[in-house]
C-alpha cells in the first residue's frame, strides 16, 4: 500500500462537499484527474469509499469509517511539516563555527562583528580547538563549519579555499638578524643557516614543512627553542630568542607584538580553508561568513610590517602526510 497525502486530501474534499466538481475547482484539478486519484485510492484500499451517481456523491460505510483516519493522518503530516520547516529556519539562524585558538583571539572578534552586523538574525556558537579536533567535529556533525589550515585528508569533508597563506619569517622589530637578510633584502631558506629558530614539535604539520625545506637546502640552525603554541612562538621572537617561521595568517595575531615579517623565498604556499560535512549543501550564510573571513584577512595582511612579495611560489607538501 502506498497512500499519498494528495489522495487523502482529495478524498476528504469530496467527502466534505459531496461534489467532484466543487472539489476539483477548489484543488485546481480537472474532474478527470480527481476521479483518477479517487480510483487509485480505492484500488489501494481494495474497497469503494464513494457511491457516485450522475447527481450525487455519497460516502459508503467504508468511506465513513475512513474519514476520521484520513483526517488524522493529514493533520499529523501537516503539523509535522510545519514543525520541520520551523526547525530548518532555526537551524539556518544558528551557525556552529570552529576555529583554531589563535584565529579565535585575533581575527574572530573582527570577523564576527562584521558578519553579525550584516546578519543580525543569525546566532554564532563559536568553538576554538586544534585543527585535528575541528576536523573530527565537522565530520561528526557537531560543528557546521570550521576554518583553518587543515593538512589531513579526510573523506566525507568538503573544502573551499577562503584565502591563500604562506610561510613567513617573524623576527624582533628592534633587533637585526643580519644573517637572515642578505644585502638585497630577500630572505631565502639558505640565509637561515646558523640562525636560532623557534620551532613547534616535530610532529606539527607546519614544522614538518619548515624542516623539509631547511633540509632541502642543507640548512641547520644554531639552536632550536621548541614551543607548542603559535602565540608563544611570536612572543619568543619579539623577545629576541630567535626567528619563528609561521603562516602569514599569523599577521592578525602579531598586531599585538613588536615584530616584523619577511617572506621567505621561494614562497611556500598553504591554504586557509572552510570545511563542511560532505553533502551538507552550501548554505548562503556560510558563503557570506567565508567572504568576511577573506576580507578581514586581507585587511590584516595589508597592515603587516615588512612583508615582501615573493618572486615565485612553491606549493607545500607535508612530509609523511
UniProtKB/TrEMBL annotation:
<keyword id="KW-0804">Transcription</keyword>
<dbReference type="InterPro" id="IPR036388">
    <property type="entry name" value="WH-like_DNA-bd_sf"/>
</dbReference>
<comment type="similarity">
    <text>Belongs to the LysR transcriptional regulatory family.</text>
</comment>
<keyword id="KW-0805">Transcription regulation</keyword>
<feature type="domain" description="HTH lysR-type">
    <location>
        <begin position="3"/>
        <end position="60"/>
    </location>
</feature>
<dbReference type="InterPro" id="IPR050950">
    <property type="entry name" value="HTH-type_LysR_regulators"/>
</dbReference>
<dbReference type="InterPro" id="IPR036390">
    <property type="entry name" value="WH_DNA-bd_sf"/>
</dbReference>
<dbReference type="InterPro" id="IPR005119">
    <property type="entry name" value="LysR_subst-bd"/>
</dbReference>
<keyword id="KW-0238">DNA-binding</keyword>
<dbReference type="Pfam" id="PF00126">
    <property type="entry name" value="HTH_1"/>
</dbReference>
<dbReference type="InterPro" id="IPR000847">
    <property type="entry name" value="LysR_HTH_N"/>
</dbReference>
<dbReference type="Pfam" id="PF03466">
    <property type="entry name" value="LysR_substrate"/>
</dbReference>
<protein>
    <submittedName>
        <fullName>LysR family transcriptional regulator</fullName>
    </submittedName>
</protein>
Amino acid at each position: 500500500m502506498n497512500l499519498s497525502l494528495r489522495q487523502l486530501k482529495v478524498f476528504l474534499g469530496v467527502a466534505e462537499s459531496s461534489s467532484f466538481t466543487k472539489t476539483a475547482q477548489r484543488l485546481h484539478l480537472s474532474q478527470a484527474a480527481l476521479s483518477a486519484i479517487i480510483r487509485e485510492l480505492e484500488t489501494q484500499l481494495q474497497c469503494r469509499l464513494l457511491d457516485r451517481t450522475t447527481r450525487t456523491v455519497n460516502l459508503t460505510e467504508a468511506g465513513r469509517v475512513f474519514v476520521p483516519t484520513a483526517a488524522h493522518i493529514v493533520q499529523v503530516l501537516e503539523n509535522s511539516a510545519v514543525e520541520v520547516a520551523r526547525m530548518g529556519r532555526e537551524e539556518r539562524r544558528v551557525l556552529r563555527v570552529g576555529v583554531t585558538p589563535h584565529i579565535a583571539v585575533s581575527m574572530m572578534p573582527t570577523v564576527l562583528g562584521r558578519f553579525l552586523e550584516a546578519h543580525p538574525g543569525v546566532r554564532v556558537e563559536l568553538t576554538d580547538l586544534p585543527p585535528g579536533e575541528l576536523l573530527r567535529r565537522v565530520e561528526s556533525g557537531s560543528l557546521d563549519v570550521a576554518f583553518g589550515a587543515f593538512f589531513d585528508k579526510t573523506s566525507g569533508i568538503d573544502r573551499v579555499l577562503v584565502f591563500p597563506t604562506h610561510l613567513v619569517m617573524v623576527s624582533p622589530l628592534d633587533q637585526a638578524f643580519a644573517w637572515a637578510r642578505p644585502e638585497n633584502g630577500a630572505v631565502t631558506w639558505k640565509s637561515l643557516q646558523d640562525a636560532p629558530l623557534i620551532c613547534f614539535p616535530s610532529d606539527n604539520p607546519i614544522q614538518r614543512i619548515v624542516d623539509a625545506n631547511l633540509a632541502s637546502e642543507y640548512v641547520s640552525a644554531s639552536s632550536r627553542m621548541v614551543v607548542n603554541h603559535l602565540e608563544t612562538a611570536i612572543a619568543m621572537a619579539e623577545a629576541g630568542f630567535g626567528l619563528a617561521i609561521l603562516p602569514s595568517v599569523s599577521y592578525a595575531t602579531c598586531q599585538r607584538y613588536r615584530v616584523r615579517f619577511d617572506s621567505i623565498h621561494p614562497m611556500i604556499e598553504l591554504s586557509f580553508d572552510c570545511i563542511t560535512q560532505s553533502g551538507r549543501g552550501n548554505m548562503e550564510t556560510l558563503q557570506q561568513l567565508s567572504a568576511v573571513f577573506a576580507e578581514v584577512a586581507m585587511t590584516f595582511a595589508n597592515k603587516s610590517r615588512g612583508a615582501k612579495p615573493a618572486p615565485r611560489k612553491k606549493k607545500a607538501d607535508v612530509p609523511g602526510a
